[in-house]
Design brief:
homodimer; alpha+beta; 7-stranded mixed sheet; 4-stranded mixed sheet
Chain lengths: 338, 338
Amino acid sequence: MPGEFERIRAIVAGLPPGERVIVGPGDDAAVLRPRAGFDLVVTTDAFVEGRHWWAGATPAAAIGARLAAANLSDVAAMAAEPRWALVSAGAPRDTDAAWMQAVEHAFASALAAEGACVVGGNLASSSGPAWWSITLLGEVERGRAWTRAGARAGDVLAVTGWPGRAAAFLACERAGAEPPPALRAAVHAPPSRVRAARALAAAGGVTAAVDVSDGFAGDLAHLAAASGVGADVESARWPADPLQAAAARALASHAGTSERSAGAIERGFRAAPGDDYELILAVDPARWDAIVDAANAAACPLHAIGRITGVRGECVAVAESGARTPLGGAGWDHFAGA
Amino acid sequence: MPGEFERIRAIVAGLPPGERVIVGPGDDAAVLRPRAGFDLVVTTDAFVEGRHWWAGATPAAAIGARLAAANLSDVAAMAAEPRWALVSAGAPRDTDAAWMQAVEHAFASALAAEGACVVGGNLASSSGPAWWSITLLGEVERGRAWTRAGARAGDVLAVTGWPGRAAAFLACERAGAEPPPALRAAVHAPPSRVRAARALAAAGGVTAAVDVSDGFAGDLAHLAAASGVGADVESARWPADPLQAAAARALASHAGTSERSAGAIERGFRAAPGDDYELILAVDPARWDAIVDAANAAACPLHAIGRITGVRGECVAVAESGARTPLGGAGWDHFAGA
């Protein structure tokens, strides 16, 4: 089996070179040259075997692509451009080197597609499940980072894509029901919202943003708490997703229940924990049309689903009948119930 | 047991605030403001239970202090000032929250003592051994980072402190011999060489640097390879360390062997793998006196132990008799023999 340094060399050799990397992998640290007039945006996200993927069940390419998405999504939620990544990994000594390289090439490729390169890393042996942790650095024009904290009552509440897909896929896998192939493809290689976020930031009008990494309801609650606001989500405006509908039908059929129950199953996906790597945005209504144009130009599906309200911390689903129900779902908590 | 977000809040609440942190922990990412005219230095190092520490045997404060040292040492080896850290951790759900906080406060304090603050992190549950990974960002005057690659034949070869202590401590623990208390203290809270490195960089004359994180012989070989040089280490100039000598005597006595064998045991520490977090430096001989003055002013023990040679890749121990022996020890390899 290859040793630590040989493994690192093999991984590094396949990586694309980076911009403004003065010293790349192979020294005590990497040296980078940030652009003048820009702030640095930094985030870290880890994937653990048995939590974020299952040995034998999740393809290496999907592990890598989703790990990259988890980090890219955080950078997108700050309106920043991804630049440089560091990778820290732990795995048992007998871990298949080709499999590790496949995961690492998958995340390096997904990062490279958005303009980021791997500039360093660390590999440790562990007696337990394998894990990868990425720290991603990005750049944003000075003082222009989005945060979770700027939403105001009256702002348009919007989401990119179709949150709930990750939960729908997981529900199928857990139940042993075959997920629709298009859903599998969408979940295994989540689209990046980096370019859309940059386009929206350039258009102006986004007052707050958060990425959907724990579940729509939980992440909206984070934005509301940080902004000191509430939100009304209009159920009728929730974007219809054929992939989630198909998953709900597959689950209902697998369970031998009626087509009618599929509707309830589908609605459950919105409230369930799930890492969709989509963005929840609060938008100044005066800028909404410009934001829609920017999203269209960036080929990013963007849906207005409600309004920010002044009722601090209260996130509510509003039915067509006008009935108001507290938005369920606390989001994913790694240590819940422990 | 506290949940993920509660745990994160508890950890963050105890942290000192940071300089030029525009958005701190609690958003999708942190936002930092790098100084104009500086390059960014970035490194990542992880500690894994059962590899870098042993449950019940290593105090939480030592785990945290050594993890901080591993990262600080990389930044020191680039002549940079540590600024901002991100923390990624994985642990079983039933992990004692107070123990995790003790580890995290220990590394946060050690980082704070050198001017760095924790600006973000991620906490994941895992079914396996606990791990922490830190990514540390530092700043160095543009174009002034030390690397492993600049050593030239004729340069003075120097080390800070007394490499071998980590190996000596580990040898005692493995053999079940009681390590000298002062050795335990030195290994459990390694001194930082950040301030010394900054002072030496200001003095000028360091041509290459590497930190001792795998073992003296292995890390010197990395520097030699990167610089395309060799090194003669004069055995007689190796700094005498009372703590390693005491450890060797304890081991010899524990094994019931003679005092004479203690000498051989002690010499073995230099070649053994070990993470001492000291610096190996190549220094322009014309600047040596100024470097010594700077080290003294920074209260950093610095020892000239030999010369850089033009014999590419050949690192040799030179005895007083003139006998030349290839420097043993390949350094620690997490995946060796796998």
